[in-house]
Amino acid sequence: MITLKQERSSDLSIKKIGLISDTHIPTRAKKIPLRVFTIFQNVDFIIHAGDLVSLEVIDELEQLAPVLAVHGNMDGVNVREKLPKMNELTFDHWRIGVTHDPGTRFGGRKMREIAKENKFDVLVYGHTHHQSIVWEDNRLFINPGSPTRPILPFMTKPTIAILKFSQKKVETEIVSIKK
């Protein structure tokens, strides 16, 4: 578990977390798109929700900010040995969980159970390659999509996401990486 501590100041600071998933480097894409680095340039932290395929993805992203990652179903033994299936971090009083596949294919029941059992305010996940933001019972469930292989390229653009945290609220945005 990683804890992000909010700096106390007269202007309650906002922390930005970049969200990314399903990069599949180098099996389905040669490299992380350059626009990801531009969008994540001013983030305080990056979460990768699995299917990196290569641990070099973390090295590249860590040039911008610390990275918290989990392994996905397409990650090999070398990645699975280094990264957990589920991870979490805390920012002030916000608990953020991350997993690759919370069982979304079978509906949201398992996903809701994971968030409730772990007392997550935010659950970041991947696997579907499709961006999604759902607020339910004061919990945020967010999938940033894939910056390299959207599930239906003719319907869905490559995406990542940004979370903005302050002491009182969470805001989120899906960002298309195609100009």
Give the secondary structure arrangement, pairings included.
Blueprint (H helix, E strand, L loop, with lengths): L1 E3 L10 E6 L13 H6 L5 E4 L7 H6 L5 E3 L7 H6 L3 E6 L2 E6 L9 H9 L4 E3 L7 E5 L2 E5 L15 E7 L4 E7 L3
Parallel strand pairs: 1-5, 2-3, 3-4, 6-7, 7-9
Antiparallel strand pairs: 2-10, 5-6, 8-9, 10-11
At a glance:
This protein has 179 residues and is an alpha/beta fold. Helix content is 15%, strand content 31%. The strands form 2 sheets. Strands 1-5-6-7-9-8 form a 6-stranded mixed beta sheet, with helices on one face. A 5-stranded mixed beta sheet has the order 4-3-2-10-11, with no helix packed on it.
Describe the structure.
This protein is α/β, with parallel strands linked by helices. It has a single domain, classed as Purple Acid Phosphatase, chain A, domain 2, CATH 3.60.21.10. The chain is 15% helix and 31% strand. The chain has four helices and eleven strands, in the order ββαβαβαββαβββββ. The protein has helices spanning 34-39, 56-61, 77-82, 109-117; strands spanning 2-4, 15-20, 45-48, 67-69, 86-91, 94-99, 122-124, 132-136, 139-143, 159-165, 170-176. The strands form two sheets. The chain has a six-stranded mixed β-sheet, with helices on one face. Strands 4-3-2-10-11 form a five-stranded mixed β-sheet, with no helix packed on it. Strand 8 (132-136) and strand 9 form a beta hairpin. The termini are far apart. Residues 1-12 have low confidence and may be disordered.
